[in-house]
Write a structure and sequence with these properties.
- The protein is built from 19 helices and no strands.
- The protein has about 400 residues and is mainly α.
Length: about 400
């Protein structure tokens, strides 16, 4: 029992940044939701119950107000307006509670995934004190990610604003025989933030998939993932904001896919910017060309700030293997990738592509650089006539300090 209590404490400490942000944001949501919406609804009810015409300036251009007035007029004819007024506060509280429970569960889920993996490492792999420290590591960055998750889902459930969405959902909840009583989480026709929400949902699904992969691999110690995730969501939200200004529904799929595959979009932009600056599109800078490299492998290397072939080439392999557990990436495969990256960085991607049939790694190139037959082969196939110079460059690359 004591072991499970300590594991629960580790899990709580790991999730504490998100829980702190959730508590604050859900309290604000209540204040701006049921706390403020109930009074305007009472005012509209008073207009209708007193057989007064609602002023045009309260309805004109306001879809939520129009729908609320139409609903209240119908209930007035049915002599049910008093009951609606009496239950308004209770209904709004029910909507807030329903939305808040979903927001809580969805926002805390990524933290729970890695937190459970970390808690399970006690007492087999790490001491309790070490795990407490790991659980609280990078607390401010985890708060930022928790803030993005919380606010993101607040606007998934309230895409036209907290108060307006609450009033819209109030009518949907009460007007059960309406032809359009779908909640706003489904009915996004009037949402001005739908592109940003689509990008956020794509990023969230990618985040959950990656965190589950990390849990499966037992790679739960590093907290660098939160920094990279925050950077990626800023990129995705920025793209969504730009697309929302000049595209309609056709842009939703695009921004969702950018959120779901952010590294692909970032790589495309990097290659395009390189082409603009240098006039030449360098092929082979992406980690994806390495044999056996998966999307998850690219993301794990990005956690350690390794986002291209040249960056990988300058890394000290022993240091990188210490940071990335063998369960996540096989150490021998990591050494092989680094060896390939070093040769590719020195001779260039185009010549490497010609040469890879006879030489794939920097280590092998150095070993064979004095062999006459090898020299003839690389000169004929790879158009390389200066193997000694290339060998010196590789050795200098090997002597550079780790990033």
């Amino acid at each position: 029992m004591e072991k499970y209590l300590k594991r629960s404490l580790i899990l709580f400490l790991y999730c504490s940044p998100c829980l702190a942000v959730l508590t604050l944001n859900l309290a604000l949501y209540y204040e701006q939701g049921p706390g403020e919406v109930v009074e305007p609804i009472y005012q509209y009810i008073d207009y209708i119950s007193g057989n007064k015409e609602v002023p045009d300036n309260l309805i004109k251009g306001n879809i939520v107000a129009k729908r609320l007035v139409n609903f209240l007029n119908k209930e007035n004819l049915l002599k049910n307006l008093k009951n609606i007024r009496e239950n308004a506060s209770k209904t709004l509280n029910s909507i807030w509670l329903f939305n808040s429970l979903f927001i809580l569960g969805l926002a805390i889920l990524p933290f729970l995934i890695l937190g459970i993996g970390l808690a399970k490492q006690f007492p087999h792999k790490h001491s309790l004190t070490d795990l407490y420290g790991i659980a609280l590591r990078d607390w401010p960055m985890k708060c930022l990610v928790g803030f993005v998750l919380t606010f993101g889902f607040l606007y998934v459930f309230n895409p036209i604003g907290w108060g307006a969405s609450m009033a819209y959902n109030f009518v949907s909840y009460e007007d059960v025989i309406s032809s359009s009583n779908l909640p706003l989480i489904v009915d996004y026709k009037q949402a001005g933030m739908k592109h940003i929400v689509a990008g956020f949902l794509g990023w969230y699904l990618q985040l959950i998939g990656y965190f589950l992969y990390k849990l499966y691999k037992g790679d739960v110690i590093s907290s660098n993932v939160y920094k990279k995730s925050f950077t990626k969501v800023l990129f995705v939200l920025g793209i969504g904001l730009i697309l929302s200004s000049f595209t309609e529904d056709e842009g939703l799929v695009v921004v969702f896919l950018i959120g779901f595959l952010p590294q692909s979009a970032i790589s495309m932009l990097r290659e395009y910017s390189t082409k603009l600056v240098s006039g030449v599109q360098e092929q082979g800078a992406s980690l994806s060309i390495l044999p056996g490299m998966s999307r998850w492998g690219i993301q794990r290397l990005e956690e350690e700030e390794v986002d291209s072939i040249p960056t990988l080439a300058t890394y000290n392999s022993e240091e990188l293997k210490e940071r990335i557990p063998p369960e996540a990436i096989n150490p021998e495969l990591l050494d092989y990738w680094i060896d390939m990256a070093r040769l590719m960085t020195v001779i260039g991607a185009e010549k490497y592509k010609l040469l890879e049939g006879i030489c794939k790694t920097a280590t092998y190139f150095i070993q064979m650089s004095s062999d006459d037959k090898f020299k003839e082969s690389i000169k004929e196939i790879g158009k390389i006539s200066n193997p000694d110079e290339i060998t010196d460059k590789i050795k200098k690359l090997l002597s550079k300090p780790s990033i």
